[in-house]
Amino acid sequence: MMSKKKVEAPLPNRTRLLNAAALEFATRGLQGARLEVIASESDITRAMIYYYFGGREGLYLAALEECYRHIRASEAAVDLTGLDPISALRKLTDFRIDYYVENPLFVSLVAIENQQRAAYLRTSEQISRRSVSSLESLDHVLVAGQQAGLFRDDIDLIEVHQVMVSIGMFNVSNQHTFGAVFSRDMSAPARLTRTKQLAFDVVMGLLRRLPEATARADKKSAKRGSPNRTSSPKTTSVKARSTAYRG
């Protein structure tokens, strides 16, 4: 008689465990985090952490993966239905600023992983797999803006994302030092509103077609016999012209 394959029981309180782990790792770092504290906060034993995750590093990677999963899911849930490209771009930019403010643990864990030179992130199949579709919303907005003649043709999707992330992450990761040096409360509602506007203005400055570029494009269209560029829209995604995204 064939023996039945042992089925591993699901880990109880997994979400609670990963949240506790994220807080402990973000607060004390990869090596300073205390597994007994994480276990206690999750109502499990330290031995269970080793059983399910193999130890400290496995749990850290699981917490990191969960943080990336959450931001991907949150961005995918942003409703852009019926918005013109510029309004949709503003909504995505605002989302980035708000998300980092509301999820400072993500910012802290990314900082820790950068200290590790992304050694753990590089091993994650989950993060790699999700990166393929992580920028689809932004990609669609940029292509729509190109089709409408609003945005440049030579956009690099990841560079646009980089600008959004840079301003949003800086606003949280450097809020205390930057705020102390320049006597500004980076978390004040009025300041956050200005930061959102700053991010949007910078992104739009990167994307807008210059008047002379628009004139040249219209002249080329006329020579080809096309009334305007939107009558023959682009279908190639911006992402297809960008390098693979993992961050």
Please provide a written account of the structure.
The chain is mostly helical and 247 residues long. It has helices at 14-32, 35-42, 46-53, 56-76, 85-102, 104-115, 125-131, 136-147, 157-173, 175-182, 189-207, 211-223. The chain has a domain at 71-241: Tetracycline Repressor, domain 2, CATH 1.10.357.10. Helix content is 66%, strand content 0%. Mean pLDDT is 87; it is low at 1-7, 226-235 and 243-247.
Chart the SSEs and their pairings.
Blueprint: H1 14-32, H2 35-42, H3 46-53, H4 56-76, H5 85-102, H6 104-115, H7 125-131, H8 136-147, H9 157-173, H10 175-182, H11 189-207, H12 211-223
Helix pairs in contact: 1-2, 1-4, 1-6, 5-6, 5-8, 5-9, 5-11, 9-11
In short:
With 247 residues, this protein is mostly helical. It has twelve helices and no strands.
Structural class: mainly alpha
| Helical fraction | 55-70%
General shape:
globular
How many whole angstroms does the radius of gyration measure?
22 Å
- The stretches of 5 or more residues where confidence is low (pLDDT under 50) are 1-7, 226-235, 243-247
Helix count from the secondary structure assignment: 12
List how many beta strands DSSP finds: 0
CATH topology of the domain at 71-241: Tetracycline Repressor, domain 2
CATH architecture of the domain at 71-241: Orthogonal Bundle
Overall pLDDT:
87
The biggest beta sheet is recorded as: none
Strand proportion: under 5%
SSE series: HHHHHHHHHHHH
CATH H-level superfamily of the domain at 71-241: Tetracycline Repressor, domain 2
Distance between the termini: 49 Å
CATH class designation of the domain at 71-241: Mainly Alpha
